[in-house]
Amino acid sequence: MADGYIYNKDDEADDYNERGISYFNVMQYADAVKEFTKAINIIKTDPDFYLNRALAYYSLKMYNEAIKDCQKAISLSSDRGDYHNTLGSIYDDMRKYDEAINEFNEAIKIESDVPDYYYNRGNVYWKVGKTDLALQDYNKAVSLNDSDPIFLYKRSQLLTELNKYDDALKDLDKCIKISRNPAYFVDEAGIYEKQGNYQKSLDILKEALNLSPQDISIKSKIASIEKLIESEK
């Protein structure tokens, strides 16, 4: 050991934590768990270490372990919305929807301006059939961030299910302005098909195919719409 070196357990724990993050980022989750555990063994009071390990456990679908680590992180720092959001997402994956909603509620109480929390809660509301509450949450997420197509796209899907086609099309048009994702075009085409506007649907599907020429599902949809158009002649 070099002269003058002073052991610092905080630095050592941080090193293990950083290694864990590196493993996590390349999806080596089991190795990430090992490194986060080493960090926790040195410092047992850092909530971020527990949350990081929870995320690694979550990625391994080791839900019970992930829940325990989230709960530990929350017990050490109760004012972090992202901790509750992570726990809510775990419960959502486990289909424990009441628990998931409770955690998203807590996240929103702590940080009411984070669109992801409303989006995640909206997803659960939709799953349990509370479409009015889901739409409220998607509206809130969009109002907080209307430049992320994920919020607009999800809302368009719910609006389509609710037969609010004009509103759904407006959201999809906004999505396309942000990112020309073929999925947005396909959904637009689907709405026009529901409305009986087969030519418009076909034109949009051809745009989607130009963006994704090898997509077999789009080719199949085009063939199906062409048959509908032909049958109307």
UniProtKB/TrEMBL annotation:
Keywords: Repeat, TPR repeat. TPR repeats lie at residues 13-46, 47-80, 81-114, 115-148, 182-215. PROSITE patterns: TPR. InterPro entries: TPR-like_helical_dom_sf (IPR011990), TPR_rpt (IPR019734), Ycf3 (IPR050498). It comes from the Archaea. This is Uncharacterized protein. The lineage of its organism: Archaea, Methanobacteriati, Thermoplasmatota, Thermoplasmata, Thermoplasmatales.
